[in-house]
Amino acid sequence: MKSFTTRFSYALKKKETKPQELCRIHPERGDDTSTPRISFELYERRDIPPDRERKVVGEMDFPFSLQAVSTYTYADVYFECRSSDAGKAEEGPPVIHGNFSYGHRLVGGEGGLSSIKLNMDILQHVARNVAGELGCENHGDIPKRDKPW
Question: Distance between CA atoms of 143 and 64, rounded to whole angstroms?
Fold first, then answer.
């Protein structure tokens, strides 16, 4: 975590928008199971997807940060990083996009609602720790949770 946040802090200061991969999770099985990965990137506030009035089936919003949404195959969180290390922008504090995804997996629906919540549990935990390591005020408004959604 420390080496990742050091690299990511440098990218924030340089305003680099290329995603920085935190980790890949390799299953023990040798089959064609997708490899989940977690990455973070600097994001333009104007590029955060707008809230939709109607959600698609299998998509769920979560009540924290600027935006947090999860599906069967990925979870996204967008949070501000108000920190002296994150630099300043004319339009406000930098926005960081965290993503947990299963790569090129095209199927969905495995696990139903529990997999949607589990995806967000994983990303929320990691994103809160990344925000804390980056010195983001209030952990980017990502709450600590001791129990699953």
Answer: 7
